[in-house]
Design goal:
This protein has 114 residues and is an alpha+beta fold. The protein has a domain of 73 residues: Roll (Ubiquitin-like (UB roll)), CATH 3.10.20.30. A five-stranded mixed β-sheet has the order 2-1-5-3-4, covered by helices on one side. It is elongated and about 65 Å long.
Length: 114
């Protein structure tokens, strides 16, 4: 009897607006670490630390020993370079209060806040 193969994809975004996806077929009892090692992304992108890398499956953080299921998407997260709060403050300072916020594109003649 043949073992069932899991169809997996491993995804990494080395830079903004750039994405690398590797499709894999691995035997059934497979962990996140095994899929990462089989993908070849560790060799292609040496900045990925296989022990301390933040990983997720379909947007949910997982540990490296997590068992995978068929059609799982393993995501490798890179660390933030800028704190989102600081980036928002700087963007707000550049744009000013009129060019930022929820109601920037309001209708002509509309009341404030609509």
């Amino acid at each position: 009897m043949s073992e069932a193969l899991l169809q997996l994809s491993v995804v990494y975004a080395p830079k903004a607006r750039e994405c690398v996806e590797v499709k894999l077929s691995l035997p059934a009892p497979c962990t996140v670490l095994q899929a990462l090692q089989q993908s070849g992304l560790l060799l292609q992108f040496p900045e990925i630390d296989d022990v301390h890398a933040l990983m997720g499956v379909w947007g949910r953080r997982v540990k490296l020993n997590q068992c995978l299921r068929n059609l799982d998407r393993i995501e490798i997260y890179r660390p933030l370079r800028v704190d989102p709060k600081v980036a928002r403050r700087e963007r707000f300072a550049r744009q000013g209060s009129r060019g930022a916020g929820l109601f920037v594109n309001k209708r002509a003649g509309a009341k404030a806040g609509y």
